[in-house]
Amino acid sequence: MELLEIIDRATDNLTHMIKDLIDLSRIQAGRLQVIKEPVDLGRVIRRVCGDATVLAPERRVSIDIAGDVPDRAPADPERFRQIIANLVNNANKHTPPGTPVAIQVLRAGDDVLVQVADQGPGIAPEHHDKIFDYFYRVPGPDDWNHRGVGLGLAICRGLVEGHGGRIWVDSRPGAGTRFSFTLPLSF
Ligand SMILES: Nc1ncnc2c1ncn2[C@@H]1O[C@H](COP(=O)(O)OP(=O)(O)OP(=O)(O)O)[C@@H](O)[C@H]1O
Ligand SMILES: [Mg+2]
After folding, report:
1. 2-184 architecture in CATH?
2. Which of 91, 95, 93, 117 lies closest to 106, judged by CA?
3. Which atom of ligand 1 is the closest one to the Cα of 16?
């Protein structure tokens, strides 16, 4: 059973990596399809966090959705799920087990603003632009996880921009990391 579980995890990782590579090719070819429909963002976020909890049960993830966020916002549900999953997986991978993660959904004018904040090691300012590049990983020891190829954030950027939004990071070494992205409320 133990070996089967290892194979199961390895094939999941491979599938994930192949999907990432296909998305990367689509984004680079300008052929990423974002098909918007009214989406209950909170519901998608709760589902992603439920799945993530199975992988990292000791992690506390809080979800806070402001009262003025519409019940449904224009998004491609699968693409939105991918963005959240990438950011939550990063928090799981790049911060010590047990440190909390906070997800906030706010209204910012004509946009919805989504923020994923952790209390991990943070990212030095000189890397802030580059982490959204393909295959870029911050050099140096990574105590919690050595896996990853540096595609997650580049794909997030492609998916967010495909929605007409933008994504950025606020972070300082030792002070945690907060990723923010916007989604326009118009179709
Ligand atoms: N929450 C975070 N805290 C600290 N560093 C982070 C965080 N998220 C991302 N990083 C840094 O940014 C780099 C790029 O992230 P990205 O998601 O693109 O790649 P990855 O997580 O290394 O690999 P992949 O997502 O392809 O599995 C990471 O390698 C890591 O150094
Ligand atoms: Mg990642």
Report:
1. 2-Layer Sandwich (3.30)
2. 117
3. 27
